[in-house]
Amino acid sequence: MARAAAVVPPPESAGPRPGTEPVVRRPAEPDREDPDRFEDDLPGAGTEPRRQSAGNERLRAVVLAVVSVILLGGVPAFFGLQTMNRDPVFASLDELDVPTWAAADPVDDVSGSRWCLLDCRLRERTVNSERAPEETTQVYEAALRRDGWQPWTPNYCPEQEEKGSYTCWRRDELTLDLWVRAPACVPPPVDGEPAVVPSPDPETAAEECSGSLVSVKVRNAIDDERTRPQPTTDPSLTGEDPYPTLSEDPLGELTPSPPS
Known about the structure:
Layout: H1 47-85, H2 88-94, E1 104-111, E2 122-129, H3 133-146, E3 150-152, E4 165-171, E5 174-181, H4 202-208, E6 212-220, H5 235-238
Antiparallel strand pairs: 1-2, 2-6, 3-4, 4-5, 5-6
């Protein structure tokens, strides 16, 4: 009995089939940037500029904050310290309505505490006037009255007799001493040598010693002893008089005895 043999089709060849074109594969090329494509569309594009922009904005905000602190806090603090260091009493003396010839070469001196710690503050100012003491006194007294100062006549004004015009004034919690007198006209010593006494000639002295010298002393009224009660010679305050004066002494006259 004959067996049918299996028919196996022949393998197809690897070559191109008839009637078809061969497919040519090109090697992969790196991606090229499209010049017409926006930067934001590219992957990872814009990250670095955004970081730089955020850093610049943060730096700008810090600078603005520092400038604001300086303007709002530093400048007022500076002027506040300047005001505290500048005594308002000297500022009021600067504002006195006196002519320039009566306030030349001012020299200020301060002692004590402004807040009366241990000692209250004492302010002193000395100026030179180009005119006579009488005219200078009138100018300063008129300026003090316009500035609100009132004449004051305590017991010790001055504490001791002084040459020239010496007056005392009060305003609010302050007291003021005004002393106007002729200048000393004694030159200072030179190279350790004593000062030369000026010539006794009146005409020469009048030419060399013209003008006047003004001294202003301002104190707190609470620290001025002249504002306190002054001691008197009342025996009830100072003690008993060791040699009292007797008057109408009942033992000074003999009392007559009654008749027997």
